[in-house]
Amino acid sequence: MHHHDTSERLASYADVLAGELPDTWTSSYLPPDAKDDLAELADRIWDLDLVAASLTEHPLRQAAVLTRPDGAQLVLLERRDERDGFLVAAVAPRALPDEAYRAVPEPNGIALTDDPFLSAEQVASDLLVRYDSALAQVRDNALGGIQPSQPDRLVLTWQPDGSVATAPVGNQAGAVLEANGFIQDPQSGIYRLGTDDTQAQARALRAIGPQLEALGIGTALQHPASRTAPTSAPASVPHVPAGTRAPAARTR
Q: CA-CA distance, 64 to 11, in Å (whole number)?
């Protein structure tokens, strides 16, 4: 089969598969000349089984990437053995520390037939279930106890040292936080507001509520049981009970 035929088949299959998966997915094709992107993608393929074994014998030369709005990604590649079909695997998130992945089982990929409609059902009932579970665990590990936010709700958590931390969803909330003195950790994505100036801290917390509300994003302040929020905290921000952490994963 010529390369053009193979690439067209892979891209077309990915488009149909993306349209059949639950939620909203988009697909993009990485051709052989996108070497840097393919190398970066290969490093993030979250698999220690079927797909990893295939890549050991056949390095990634082209791929289709399926992306969900929350950042989840799947990689689709041609199956280069005596069988027809494709392989699909989960892609690990960028910029999370290695510690976040400890004791979290890999959501190993699966083989797919040439029928993208049947394959979508298989991906949804098998790979996506395991992938979403693994994503929740690594993100929870990276947050270190900070309750995750939602696209329309920013949760701020008081820390033992008096700082405030949050993990926003989306660029709009992040921009508001940065404009009010929060600093983002590039590894975890967590934004923190320090205690160098408690009055400035209080002003920032009062300011972000209306600014986020104008964007359709609510706010909530979480107080760990071991700490009482200072009286300078904005009274209009409601209390949020501590979230339930994801269950511990089995050791690899």
A: 6
Query: Which burial class, exposed, middle or buried, applies to 119 when counting CB atoms under 10 A from its CB (0-12, 13-18, 19+)?
Result: buried
In this predicted structure, the answer to whether residue 242 has a pLDDT above a threshold of 80 is no
Tokens 């393929």 belong to residue: 45
| Helical pair 171-179 and 198-213, crossing angle rounded to 10 deg | 150
Quick one: three-class SS letters along 31-93? CCCCHHHHHHHHHHECCCCHHHHHHHHCCCCCEEEEECCCCCEEEEEECCCCCCCEEEEEECC
CA distance 196 to 204: 13
* Three-state secondary-structure class, residue 250: coil
User: How does pLDDT run across 18-37, given as a tens digit for each residue?
Assistant: 999 999 999 999 999 999 99
State the DSSP string of 123-167: IIIIIHHHHHHHHHHHHHHHHTTPPP-BTTEEEEEE-TTS-EEE-
How much is the CA Rg of the chain, to the nearest whole Å?
Answer: 21
Instruction: Look at phi and psi of residue 189 and say left if phi exceeds 0, alpha if psi is from -120 to 50, else beta.
Output: left
> Which two three-digit tokens encode residue 57?
């014998």
Task: For Cα atoms 21, 137, 86, give the angle at the middle one, nearest 5 degrees.
Answer: 35
pLDDT at 232 over 90: no
For residue 4, name the pLDDT band (cuts at 50, 70, 90).
low
Query: In sequence order, what are the residues at sequence separation of 6 or more whose Cβ sits closer than 8 angstroms to the Cβ of residue 67?
Result: 25, 26, 27, 28, 73
Residue 208, pLDDT score:
95
